[in-house]
Amino acid sequence: MFALRIIEETRENENLPFEQVVENFVIGNSYSILRNGATKEFDAIMESEFPEAEITPIESLLCTENGSKFFIWYPTALRQYSYFIMTESGKTFERL
Length: 96
What we know:
Blueprint: E1 2-10, E2 19-28, E3 31-35, H1 40-49, E4 58-64, E5 69-73, E6 79-86, E7 92-95
Antiparallel strand pairs: 1-2, 1-6, 3-4, 4-5, 6-7
């Protein structure tokens, strides 16, 4: 069983320090990572499920066994994310 840990750091402007939020999501026993520009499957899912989304800031899609999908965002000056796939025991399996 895997979990996705997202560490989100945001700030209102470049002169302020980042504020941090940590979230964990159970994603099941398997997952797929679809990279923007590397697979047509990324484009097909974005068109069918997220037609209003701007794909430029999205680096990848994480598709989970339970059907959930998570955007993996490119960092900006005001928003940064760290993504980790964790095992049941809490160890890092993969950093995205």
